[in-house]
């Protein structure tokens, strides 16, 4: 069980990027047969990271949308077929040790809901009106369900090192409701595509272990010639010590 807190933000950073309020809860399930992800994310206050792609921008601060708010809620789970030789726990929770390289096919289901609301539109007021007229969305929401299938693999090399990578794309159905700056829109049905990516790297000593893990879940909405992408991400560095609480000599099982 782990709990994380955001690092304090300096006044200079707030002036440069704006202020963001957030609630970000993510849950991960790693068993021998089932791997799952659940999340609830609420963010308010955004900045545009690439203003020079749209206009000449020489200011030290980024254009912001302080009233822009997003809500994301979703879950996915998939079955690990080669669970006798491959261990997701070994890469991400370190409650097991995988001693030989192995991988597994994964198959499962997903469902998620995303909502974006910006009363003044998605384009900051510093930009030309023609850009805001073309991308005239002020809010949208959608839900999606589908199936996902991919592959996971852990390389075990040298003595105690491991490297894990997994890619699990999904396809399904998506219902999208958009509202525009001048009018309301109708619900549209779209083909849905999302991809869940994970990676891990670590080293195991006799009693100590350390490593890093990273994951991202990417999905998008299509509008005109635009792709409106959203992602749920996690990055973690860990170091730990193992204790033999039984007082007996432990055995390793391959």
Give the SSE order as H and E letters: HEEEHEHEEEEE
**How many individual helices?**
3
Shape: globular
Radius of gyration: 22 Å
Average pLDDT number: 88
What is the strand content? over 45%
Strand order, sheet with most strands: 1-2-3-4-5-6-7-8-9
Q: Largest sheet at a glance?
A: 9 strands, antiparallel
Uncertain spans? none
Distance between the termini: 26 Å
Q: What is the percent of helical residues?
A: under 10%
- Give the number of DSSP strands: 9
Category by helix and strand content: mainly beta
Description:
By secondary structure, the chain is mainly β. Helices cover 7% and strands 59% of the residues. It has 3 helices and 9 strands, in the order αβββαβαβββββ. The protein has helices at residues 11-17, 88-92, 129-134, and strands spanning 21-30, 34-47, 64-80, 102-117, 137-157, 161-180, 184-204, 208-223, 226-241. Strands 1-2-3-4-5-6-7-8-9 form a 9-stranded antiparallel sheet. A hairpin with a 2-residue loop joins strand 8 (208-223) and strand 9 (226-241). It is globular and about 70 Å long. The model has no long low-confidence stretch (mean pLDDT 88).
């Amino acid at each position: 069980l782990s709990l994380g807190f955001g690092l304090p933000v300096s006044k200079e950073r707030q002036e440069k990027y704006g202020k963001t309020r957030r609630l970000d809860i993510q849950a991960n399930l790693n068993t021998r047969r089932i791997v799952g992800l659940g999340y609830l994310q609420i963010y308010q206050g955004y900045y545009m990271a690439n203003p020079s792609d749209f206009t000449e921008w020489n200011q030290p601060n980024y254009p912001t949308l302080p009233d822009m708010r997003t809500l994301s809620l979703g879950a996915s789970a998939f079955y690990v077929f080669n669970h006798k030789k491959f261990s997701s726990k070994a890469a991400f929770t370190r409650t097991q040790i995988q001693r030989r390289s192995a991988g597994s096919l994964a198959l499962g289901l997903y469902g998620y809901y995303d909502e974006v609301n910006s009363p003044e539109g998605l384009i900051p007021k510093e930009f030309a009106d023609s850009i805001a007229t073309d991308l005239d969305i002020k809010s949208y929401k959608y839900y999606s369900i589908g199936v996902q299938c991919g592959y996971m693999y852990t390389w075990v090399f040298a003595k105690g090192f491991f490297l894990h990578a997994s890619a699990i794309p999904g396809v399904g159905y998506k219902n999208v409701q958009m509202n525009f700056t001048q009018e309301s829109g109708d619900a549209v049905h779209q083909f849905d595509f999302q991809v869940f990516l994970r990676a891990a790297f670590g080293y195991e000593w006799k009693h100590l272990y350390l490593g890093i893990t990273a994951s991202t879940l990417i999905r998008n909405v299509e509008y005109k010639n635009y792709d409106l992408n959203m992602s749920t991400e996690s990055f973690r560095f860990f170091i730990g010590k193992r204790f033999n609480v039984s007082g007996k000599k432990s055995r390793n099982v391959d």
